[in-house]
Amino acid sequence: MTVKLRGDPWEALFPHALTLMEEVKTHGGIEPLWTFGGGTVLMLRYDHRMSKDIDIFVPDPQYLGFVTPRLSDVAEAITSDYVEQGNFVKLVLDSGEVDFVASPNLTDDPFEVWEIMGRPVRVETATEIVAKKLYHRGDRATARDLFDLAVVVEQDRDALEGAAPFLLRHAAAFMDQVVGRRPILEKQFAQIERRQFARSYDDCVALAKDLFATLDSTKGQSDE
């Protein structure tokens, strides 16, 4: 697949990610195995909502030393505004954010190769993206996470079955939050800049609930 550029904000940020991955290759002496994931990739797949930030996933925290302005002159030339922790570096620019996250792939087939800006890029599957979201932070549900999960359930539900262990890890906590924190999350939900997905908050909660019930039932049968 070749991504058609249409002037969206992410397009101004992505070259910075490419530049810094080249830094890993040049100074780290390795060909970095990185993937492009997150909400912007889901937008490119489904055009369901606006997303402008870049999420780059790397398998080893050692990669992060090459992309932090604290250690890299190239990164500092891009921006001196950043947040750094042990497993991620967030670059903050006027046009958005570029996140580099140390997080190994979870699923068996985590990416496809797309052509973006004239070069091959490992782009995460929708299943890998929502698996990471729910496995790592499913107990801290956000309105966008619910919205993103719902569009994948509606469009590619069958593909999610193979990611059941990751999706179910925090399923109960996720549902508790989208129900128990509804007043807060529903306000956030209303602020999502939608494109081609018009499901309501209740619709999205129902889609998530049904998915988790199906995956849990299937898991129970396989455990017998």
What would your notes on this structure say?
- With 224 residues, the chain is an alpha+beta fold.
- The protein has 2 domains: 10-124, Beta Polymerase, domain 2 (2-Layer Sandwich), CATH 3.30.460; 126-223.
- Helix content is 48%, strand content 17%.
- The protein has 9 helices and 7 strands, in the order H-E-H-E-H-E-E-E-E-E-H-H-H-H-H-H.
- The protein has helices spanning 10-28, 38-46, 73-78, 126-137, 143-156, 164-168, 171-180, 182-190, 201-223, and strands at 35-37, 54-58, 82-85, 88-93, 96-102, 111-116, 119-124.
- It has a 5-stranded mixed β-sheet with strand order 1-2-5-4-3, sandwiched between helices. A two-stranded antiparallel sheet has the order 6-7.
- The longest helix has 23 residues, at 201-223.
- The model has no long low-confidence stretch (mean pLDDT 95).
Largest sheet: 5 strands, mixed
Strand order of the largest sheet: 1-2-5-4-3
The portion of residues forming beta strands comes to 15-25%
CATH topology of the largest domain: Beta Polymerase, domain 2
Q: What is the CA-atom radius of gyration, in angstroms?
A: 18 Å
Categorize the overall geometry.
Answer: globular
In terms of per-residue confidence, which ranges show pLDDT below 50 for 5 or more consecutive residues?
none
Q: Could you say what the CATH architecture of the largest domain is? A: 2-Layer Sandwich
How many domain modules? Answer: 2
Helix coverage percent: 40-55%
Can you count the beta strands? Answer: 7
Measure the end-to-end span.
Answer: 41 Å
- The number of helices is 9
Tell me the name of the CATH class of the largest domain: Alpha Beta
